Amino acid sequence: MELPTQCPVCGSPxxxxxxxxxxxxxxxxxxxxxxxxxxxxxxxxxxMDIDGLGDRLIEQLVRLGRVRTPADLYTLTSEELxxxxxxxxxxxxxxxxxxxxxxxxxxxxxxFALGIPDVGEATAQALAEHFGSLESLMAAGxxxxxxxxxxxxxxxxxxxxxxxxxxxxxxxxxxRRSGVAWPxxxxxxxxxxxxLRGATVVITGTLAGMTRDEARxxxxxxxxxxxxxxxxxxxxxxxxxxxxxKLRKAQELGVRIVDExxxxxxxxxxxxPRL
Length: 275
Prior knowledge:
Radius of gyration: 21 Å
Strand order of the largest sheet: 4-3-5-6
Number of strands: 6
Largest sheet: 4 strands, parallel
Distance between the termini: 57 Å
Structural class: alpha/beta
Number of helices: 15
Order of helices and strands: EEHHHHHHHHHHHHEHEEHEH
Strand content: 5-15%
């Protein structure tokens, strides 16, 4: 059976990665067939973390033709949102605030949010660390992408095909024009950035200077493995305000416990004791 060369929905090229039997549409950010799911993924907590953009609201915005790509989300106003079903002024204002906050992100989160096939959080992190900037990744060939840690031929083909699609590039450029930005990974690296190499880190409580997701990203960038629960394998617990059962368990197990200031000192390679 001959494989299609174009997606019948959006017209984007269809590519089949090495070793795969199924050909996939490369128009992930523009394909109408993938639109709802790509928007849900883009807004999810581990991606751009747009609180308040739920399934029903996405369905409305897509059905009305108001949002076709993730870049359209950043053109929404509180006035028009307040006029939608089950949306009041407060909910609309909160969503606009969440959209504004999501403009400040990391390269790893942005890559994950794009919904490139088979690119999960770990792969997005590896790509960000290897290339340092989005421009370098977008300009890379398949062989260069395959050189990234834990990236094989299938994922490399998906990444290369995604960025080779001109309309995906157009949406990415529109997102950047709307103010979505991040520090390049190479410039964000700090002296002593290997201070947590080999550590298993858990973060609990409310931090003052960063969100827990930002703290997890910083720990991973410093070489740590980040988990959600305290166990005998945990080597460091970072605690913020209102830390609960995880703190008690860490104390019982004799896990090293640091506050946010001590954690920041470790990340910056300060004079504090290293792991």
